Amino acid sequence: MVPVTENMPAFAIVTGDDKRARKTIGNFKEVEARDAPVVAITDGQSDVERYADHVLEIPEMHPRAAAVLVNTHLQLVSYHTAALLGRNIDKPRNLVKSVTVE
């Protein structure tokens, strides 16, 4: 597991303004408290922008359609990060993912 530090950005996907969005914002605040840079991908319905260092916006839309636009943002960030680091874009390695399930 990669530790949360000032050198490791954290991405939060927050669409809508329901219980799940508020819980995600709560988790986001914990990451912010550890001085990690935080990037929010949001449709602007919640107040997650207050806690983010950077915000990537998508338009308000049906939640299932929003997932496609969020994924597009994440794919572009991944692609450009790999390119800037001089990594082989077609052969990722050491992938880490974290999923929070209730």
UniProtKB/TrEMBL annotation:
A molecular function (GO) term: carbohydrate derivative binding
Entries under CDD domains matching the protein: SIS_GlmS_GlmD_2
One GO term of the biological process aspect: protein N-linked glycosylation
GO cellular component: cytosol
Record-annotated SIS domain positions: 1-92
Protein name listed in UniProt: SIS domain-containing protein
Originating organism: Haloarcula mannanilytica
